[in-house]
Amino acid sequence: GPSAVEQTKNGVIVQIDTQDPTQARQVSIEVLGERLIHVSATPERKFSKKESLVVLPQQTGTDFKVEESADSVFVRTSKLTAAVSRKTGVVHFNDANGRLLLAEDEQGRSFQPIEEEGTHGYTVQQVFQSASEDEGLYGLGQHQSDEFNYKGKNEELFQYNTKVSVPFIVSTEGYGVFWDSYSFCRFGAPQPYVQLGDVFDLRDKD
Fold first, then answer.
1. How far lies 86's CA from each of 6, 43, 60, 91, 127, in Å?
2. Would you tell me which of 54, 75, 86, 90 could form a disulfide with 3, CB atoms 3.0–4.6 Å apart?
């Protein structure tokens, strides 16, 4: 059936009609500022009641409008628009002139159930479409490699000795993404690093 839309104090919650347990049942768009949108998604029937440790409550509201079409729900501020697909929950962001800033990949978000020490949770993967071939991506904190532009690169995000991970990137295309997670995360290709012995064969001169 058609997705339901619930307007909240600061945005909307879009119910996604899916039977796939790896996909989001709900996507929340919360307006935190004219240029700041907080996106949450869950495969559960309800969002967690736990408050984020890093997203600060907003003291003043920001004006926004909600519009609906057959395919999408639009949340508009004076500076940008967040569009949520009613069918998939995929979110696209456009500036005030309609230029695409950032888009989630059509198959880019997935949840895989896990259990650790009796606690149920999810491993989450999120893929975005690159804004352009020559886009630069900067941030991620302080790492032990000599990388600055992380476009096409991989980095594992955890705290260790001189390694200080900050799950935030800024693009030369004029947007930033903050990944609100305190878990071990991986930026770039989802495949983990492997041991050299599992990849290469060592042969003698013959």
1. 13, 15, 29, 10, 18
2. 86
Question: Beta-strand (E) ranges in 34-190?
Answer: 36-42, 65-68, 72-76, 80-85, 91-95, 100-116, 119-129, 137-142, 155-157, 164-171, 176-178, 185-187
Report helix, strand or coil for 6. Answer: strand
The candidate with the shortest Cα–Cα distance to 104, out of 164, 184, 202, 16, is 16
The Cα-based distances of 47 to 28, 39, 42 in angstroms read 9, 12, 6
The 10s digit of each residue's pLDDT in 161-174 is 889 999 999 999 99
Q: How do strand 91-95 and strand 80-85 relate by DSSP bridges?
A: antiparallel
pTM summary value = 0.88
Q: What is the DSSP letter of 3?
A: P
Cβ partners under 8 Å of residue 115, min gap 6: 121
Q: Give the bridge partners for 123, in sequence order.
A: 112
Phi-psi group of 160: left, alpha or beta (phi > 0 → left; psi -120 to 50 → alpha; rest → beta)? beta
